[in-house]
Amino acid sequence: MSQLAPSLTSRLPDLVGPARVITNAASLAACEVDGHSPSAILQPESPAEIAEILRFASAERLAVIPMGGRTHLGIGMPPRHYDLAVDLSRMNKILACEPRDLTLGIEPGVTCADLARELLQKGQFLPIAPPFNDRATLGGMVAAGVDSPLRYGYGATRDFLLGIEFVTGEGLISKSGGRVVKNVTGYDLHKLFVGSLGTLGIVTRLNFRTFPLPQFRRMFLVAFDGPSRAFEFCRLLVNSPLDPKVLEVLNPGTAALFQSRGVDFLPSSSWLVAIEAAGHEPVLVRHERDLASISREAGAAKFISLEESQRDQLFACLSEFPSIALASKRPGVIFRVPAVPSAMPSLLEKIRCVADDHNDDHGLTCAILIRALGVVYVALLSPEQFPVGDNPGAPLINCSRSMFDLFISHGALPTIERCPLDVKTALDVWPPAGPENEIVQRLKRVFDPREILSPGRFRGGI
Amino acid sequence: MHRSIIRELETLLGASAVLSNSEDLLLYEYDGSIEESHPDAIVFPARKEDVVAIMALANRHGLPIVGRGAGTGLSGGALARRGGIVVSFSRMNHILEIDPENRRAVVEPGVVNLDLSRAVEKYGLYFAPDPSSQKACTIGGNVAENSGGPHTLAYGVTSNHVTGLELVLPDAQVVRVGGRAMETPGYDLTGLVVGSEGTFALVTEITVKLLRLPEDVRTLLAIFDSLEEATDSVAEITSRGITPAACEMLDGYTLRAVEAYVHAGFPVDSAAVLLMEVEGLRESAEAQAAEIGEVCLRHHAREVRRARDGRERALLWKGRKEAFGAIGRVSPSYYVLDGVIPRTKLTPTLLRIEEISKHFGLVIGNIFHAGDGNLHPLILFDHRDADQFRRARAAGDEIMRLCVEMGGTLTGEHGVGMEKNELMPLMFSESDLDLMRKVRAVFNPADMLNPDKVLPLGKGCGETRLQPFPVSAAGKA
After folding, report:
1. Do B175 and A446 count as a contact with CB atoms less than 8 A apart?
2. Are the beta carbons of B342 and A101 separated by less than 8 Å?
3. Model's pTM, two decimal places?
4. ipTM over 0.85
5. Interatomic CA distance for residues A457 and A116, integer angstroms
6. Which of A37, A280, B348, B446 would bridge B287 by S-S if both were Cys, CB 3.0 to 4.6 A apart?
7. Distance (Å, rounded) from C-alpha B327 to C-alpha B330?
């Protein structure tokens, strides 16, 4: 645990008031990041307080990690230093919601579930449905660059984030973008914040474009006896006029995980494709008819139109894939690998080879979820009977290393999104820094010249 | 510029790739805006290596350098404000690769926007951003300005459709950012560079997303006797959950000018026309078109017409896409503005624009992307009359101020360039702008690449200093 000099500790209450400086052991432990705990947790309620905190931290060179629902703190490498946790959960107000403009302005600590409920009443939604939806905050999800099953139809966060207000590492209050749906005024600094893991600043306001809830939606599930037919189905689908909002491909390992969570309608031992259509009833009818025909053409084993309750169950599982994969407490590693559709069949074949090797030797299993035909999530999981809390050991690390190398040799840029700490001591969770690294490092120094924000957690050692 | 530098450029690129006679330079003193400036030389690189060599040479001699596509920009982005070398990308106009399976294309910056859509049509694909100038404007220019167009209402602006770039930095280094995949771990440099108005790097290669052509398109024209009923229809259409692919409005003045020129069938005694398009699956387009028609009639549209075939659709669109040309026939000069307001504030904003028009004694026509609140007021004036020119600029500034007061922004798609850089303090504080300046310096430390654009120069010129609009009041006006 970081130990602050008493002379510094005594100044913390001046920043946010004594009631919002937390130092009890249990709370500090809850804000642990990769085995490091802070000396204190500060709970600001305004941008001005955040600016005070960061000016203080910058002057004293104290390392700060901002956090919301603490659901994705495991992303990235362990921090080089960690003195103060800035807990944004008290900044949880919806600042502006203009249903007729389809725009929204919120503080970073609003949870995804609360926002979804609020928007639902207005007939709208934001296409962010992260794991741990009830605790995850919007600020955290933007910082973590999390995506959702709705990505295929509605794009990623960068596509519907209109602007932000933030405080830089030096404590300067600043902003980028705007509050209207179309805007090209000034440089788009907010694009940099998506997925930046709190290394550039602390966001104090997020402006989003919202979407009207579709009149109806329906999910379809198609089962195949192997990945090549599943991909052929996807190829036919994207070349058809159909307009699905969700398109996810699951390997049998992922289907088995979902079955273990009580999703009993999934065909076993199959590759599955989940598709959701949305809109007027005639649109759904058309999707059902055409999808059934494409399924037959691709040699599907089964085509199912899901009931509403089944749809909700499967959608929740797709959103919660990482939490479900790791829920059993057995050690596991989750990779996030961006890839183009044409590269996927051969990539999957190689993943299978590596996974089979390690399965034979050590009983590791492999659950795969392909999101929006653009991101492959691969979960490597230790055997069921693995003793809880035990060291994951060499097999998982070795397999992860082989996987990582495989992705790199395939020209992909993988990230390990979740893993036990032992894996991080053996492997970098980020791909090696690219040719753009010099620019990236200089940008970091513009926003956070003293490197006090989440130091060491990001790609390139940032 | 010294003759020896011209000779150096000619040695590098060949004599036919360098222009330096004053009559040749004349063409490059303008773009689509009302600004002008004088470059010293125009060069036409044919490949990335040429661009690198030009950049290195400019560096050596301390010369400003400005990238230029088709020169259709509306904020002076392609003008050499401090002189120097203009790099015209008209010879780097090759589509390097079409990858229909992954729905990507890799293009050089000089490829004309519409040419790309035409080249991929045989695969049933197209490039979504469609500025009105798409027959001429280049994808490199679109990347610089983060261009929009009528159909960006449904599909987003250029930055939503670019996944990777090859950059030549001001120090002549070549760096690739992003790629073909839909995301890259690390900071989103592609997202930062798109829309940086040519002040960060010269772009030599662009990887873009392609979309599938819709199965069906329905184009509707609703004719209103009241501007307010037209704008209310737009708000209701959006809030009903319909996202038209495009939703364009012309006010009475503009539609009359257009009708006299294009004969698109706009009734000349109406107050406003709404041109709307819905697309997608047959079933979806039909249901949405029916609903839009119903909303407009409820708001007392005089008539709702539907294009019956491709020819009628093209005619309706011609009325919109050639509106600027139509205005050019009735006024010696016009000043196209570009501002955005929340779409629910359309009516009060248009009323205020009318007041501004009266106050400055200038006719202002209105044409806009109503669906996303992106206004394009057209101020008519005679540039030969110095007083009118001054009033046109003043009226333009006033309208920009109004857009920011309404909770909107200074530009929706034309960029800041040299037209609005001094207005930036209306939206951004000194420290916001300072941060942007530092970010620019990461790429372009000496401000030699497209200098004196986007950010205020801070010279003041004895003008009243602009105050940033208070954040707390924005959106409540």
Report:
1. no
2. yes
3. 0.95
4. yes
5. 30
6. A280
7. 5
